[in-house]
Amino acid sequence: MSAPAMGTTKTAHSDVAPKKKRGPGALATAYLVIYNVVMTAGWLVIAVGLVRAYLARGSYHGLYYSIEKPLKFFQTGALLEVLHCAVGIVPSSVVLTGFQVLSRVFLTWAVTHSVREVQNEDSVLLFVSAWTITEIIRYSFYTFSLLNHLPYLVKWARYTFFLVLYPMGVTGELLTVYAALPYVQKTGLYSVTLPNKYNFSFDYHTFLILTMVSYIPLFPQLYFHMMRQRKKVLCHVEEYKTE
Amino acid sequence: MSRTTFFERNIGRITVEVLDGRTRQQLCFLDKVEPHATIGEIKSLFHKSYQQLYPARQDLKLDPKGKSLRDDDVLQNLPVGTTATIYFKDLGPQVGWTMVFLAEYLGPLFIYLLFYFRAPYIYSHQDVFTSSPYSVVTLACACHTCHYIKRLIEAIFVHRFSHGTMPLRTIVRNCVYYWAFSAWLAFYINHPLYTPPSYGDMQVNYALAIFVLCELGNFSIHVALNNLKAEGGPKCRRFPHPTKNPFTWLFFFVSCPNYTYEVGAWASFSVMTQCLPVALFTFLAFIQMTIWAKGKHKTYSREFKDYPQLRMPIIPLLL
Predict the structure, then answer these.
(1) Is A199 on the interface with B (CB under 8 A)?
(2) Beta-carbon contacts below 8 Å between A and B
(3) Are B33 and B14 in contact (CB under 8 A)?
(4) Which run of H or E residues covers position B5?
(5) Pairing of strands B26-33, B94-96
(6) Of A16, A195, A199, which is closest to B276 when you measure between CB atoms?
(7) DSSP structural state of residue A188
(8) What's the DSSP call for residue B257?
(9) CB B139 within 8 A of CB B272
(10) Which helix (H) or strand (E) holds B137?
């Protein structure tokens, strides 16, 4: 979702947003192209890693370990995107982007990395492959857009693949969190109990359950938002084509 | 009636048509409206045709994408001519400000007391209706309760509100926030396993003193702001000044000392109870009030050319 045009936040807020956005400067564009190319490459590495590991082992099981390091590196690297929004070189909402990236980082580190026992689950493969395909398409979309040479195929893929990948990823994520629950409860991972000096307590197990519940209102909203975007972006192009 | 009489009687009258802002459908047609009628009067006339849409719910504009018209705008002073086309938007159910504050403040008041008296089903069965051995817990309850009683008194007797109402959705959201947070912090302070402050009575007493000073300060500022509105009237706009009351001298340094004192009160409450959830609440309140203070400061600076340069929005010399 887009936010006010960058660099004009102080004055343009009350005005109608101009149709043509002021793009980032030349240096920022160069940086963003490099960033998006690197991220595309990184997720391609993960994709290739998954395929090679599957071919080597002959089964879907335990593929997480073969791509653990690049997954952590490139998914965590996405935090830079929050910075891009904050600085203004990308016209997106800091809050929305932050929320999306943090939820990914949370799943990568606070669930999959922290709870060893879930790393063998097939649900991990489910969300990792969903993320991989999504990110390869997304980052190449941004790269081409920045270079003003966006092939229709990439645009189509970006606004179509999500129809399957979103539910796939969400299913994988929810199943993984669910699998982690008994281990978290048993070990009291990341939990603080009373009594303590600062009169505070935190139950990670309950927190994870609440996280799962939050998918119920959030996922449909995001999904239908993408569907509306799809209609706007793809149908508009078709109208243009018929002229 | 002769033709000339008809003409004389209707000269200068304006025809008003109200269209839906989205569908452009005509909702209401008002014939022969007096040119010195106000938008407020138009809203009342509109309300006659649509029982559900009381004036506070109506948002009227001359341009569907433009600014909303004020209730005291006079028809002939607007760029309309003899036929006025006004666009309507439904703001949804509205709640009067007094009701808003009552709901927002009565909730935390009673919820905290539920926890203080350890009502059933909150803590374990053997703790029901017991009391804490620590005096700071009772003190905290007194402070919290007095804070909200003060707020209720201000809402009823002191504040004068510029807007009449607030949308229902906003009030529900605000209430959920205030009520949930007060339940959360009350839970820990009144917990059987509560740990009193590390530096004992000294910490509690100093924090209490600052809390009381900040509450008095906050009240003084509200009274000062209220008097400003009373003296000035709606058209005369002045910005607040320090008065004889020493608590208002903070106006030398900040535009919104009421927010400064409010943060101070909650910060001292956090120290007094040494409770992390209270500190978190203070932090979030600080962020929100800083945003409001900055907005107010900008409005003042823009409106008054002689606005004091020394003043910062909320924290003297810093923020």
Answers:
(1) yes
(2) 30
(3) yes
(4) helix B3-10
(5) unpaired
(6) A199
(7) T
(8) H
(9) yes
(10) helix B135-153
Q: Please state which of the ranges A143-147, A158-162, B276-280, B315-319 shows the lowest mean pLDDT.
A: B315-319
Active site residues of A: 166, 173
Beta strands in B81-230 (DSSP E): 83-90, 94-96, 165-167
Does the beta-carbon distance from B188 to A200 stay under 8 Å? yes
Q: Are strands B94-96 and B165-167 parallel, antiparallel or unpaired?
A: antiparallel
> What is the distance between the alpha carbons of residues B29 and A125, in angstroms, rounded to a whole number?
64
Residue A154 CA to residue A138 CA, distance in Å, equals: 9
* Nearest partner of A211 among A94, A99, A117, judged by Cα: A99
What gap in Å lies between CA A118 and CA A120, rounded to an integer? 5
Cα distance between residue B277 and residue B229, in whole Å: 36
Q: How does pLDDT run across B149-182, given as a tens digit for each residue?
A: 999 998 888 776 666 778 888 889 999 999 999 9
Three-state secondary-structure class, residue B59: strand
Report the complex ipTM.
Answer: 0.73
Residue A138 distance to chain B (closest CA, Å):
34
Q: Is B194 on the interface with A (CB under 8 A)?
A: yes
How far CA A123 is from CA of A130, A132, A173, B141, B176, in Å, comes to 11, 14, 7, 48, 35
Phi and psi for B310 in degrees, rounded to 5? -65, -30
Residues B261, B223 contacting (CB under 8 angstroms): no
DSSP letters, A98-154, are HHHHHHHHIIIIIIIIT-GGGGG-HHHHHHHHHHHHHHHHHHHHHHHHHTT---HHH
CA dist B191 and A138 (Å) reads 49
List the 77-96 stretch of A: residues with Cβ below 8 A of B: none
Mean pLDDT to the nearest integer, B262-276: 96
Give the mean model confidence (pLDDT) for residues B238-263: 91
Beta strands in chain A (DSSP E): none
Q: Is B195 on the interface with A (CB under 8 A)?
A: yes
**pLDDT at position A19:** 44
- Quote the percentage of chain A above a pLDDT of 90: 75
**pTM here?**
0.77
